[in-house]
Amino acid sequence: EQEVMAWRAEKEVAVQGPANFKPILQFMEAGIPDYLMGTVTAAGYVTPTTIQSQSWPIALSGADMQGIARTGSGKTLAFVLPSIIHIMAQPDLRPGDGPVAVILAPTRELAKQVQEVAEQFGKPCGVNTVAVYGGADKRAQIGALERGAHIVVACPGRLLDLIQSGRTNLHRTTFLILDEADRMLDMGFEPQIRKIVGQIRQDRQTLMFSATWPKEIQKLASDFMKTPTQIFIGNQE
Ligand code: ADP
Ligand code: MG
């Protein structure tokens, strides 16, 4: 207990909410399955970053959570590993199934970056990821969706377009992540985000990440999540 408090003080971590679990300080303690540990080791990662230490036990417990931490703090893996573990515990995709995990991101560049990380860790264990974003050929994205994607990393406008034209569906989606939620709102994606989230079952698990914590984000969080646990890193409260 005191160790946890000392760690949180040193790392400037504040946790609020029902799933206030202690951080995991070593990859070995995290309960990360063997099918992922090989890739973690191959990537040369020695210890989890602060946001990873504190997010994994909460996300892996099935709780909704939001992480507020600056850029470069390792948020991608904080949600990509729990996404893959969630997917590996589900029955595999059948033809016509949409994604099990949906990750929303504000820009094409970011969607591609997240897709690369999801593929790096997912591919070795058979988890397929596709990125969908505007300003690029739709046919390739549709083809990848038809072949079966466990994870879709998407900019909101293009994903909504593909749903509305029947190219994919969110009937099987049980894991939702909003990455850089503050930037998505700044870019005016709130209507599209609300339409997408409205199609996903209520008993999903939802994770939200952002660098800042303005009123608009707090509203979105309370609309999309059930008593989320909040992680603030670096005096962002
Ligand atoms: P954020 O989304 O918070 O801006 P990223 O997820 O993009 O941060 O990660 C920033 C960098 O840190 C990336 O280059 C990534 O490869 C690296 N990284 C992530 N996790 C670890 C770790 N546990 N140990 C070392 N480097 C890491
Ligand atoms: Mg990021």
TrEMBL record:
Superkingdom classification of source: Eukaryota
Residue ranges occupied by any Helicase ATP-binding domain in the UniProt entry: 56-231
Domain DEAD-box RNA helicase Q: 25-53
Keyword Ion transport (UniProt): no
Keywords tagged on the record: ATP-binding, Helicase, Hydrolase, Nucleotide-binding, RNA-binding
A GO molecular-function descriptor: RNA binding
Motif (Q motif): 25-53
Family in the record: Belongs to the DEAD box helicase family.
Protein name: RNA helicase
Biological source species: Oikopleura dioica
Residues of the full protein shown: 31 to 267 of 485
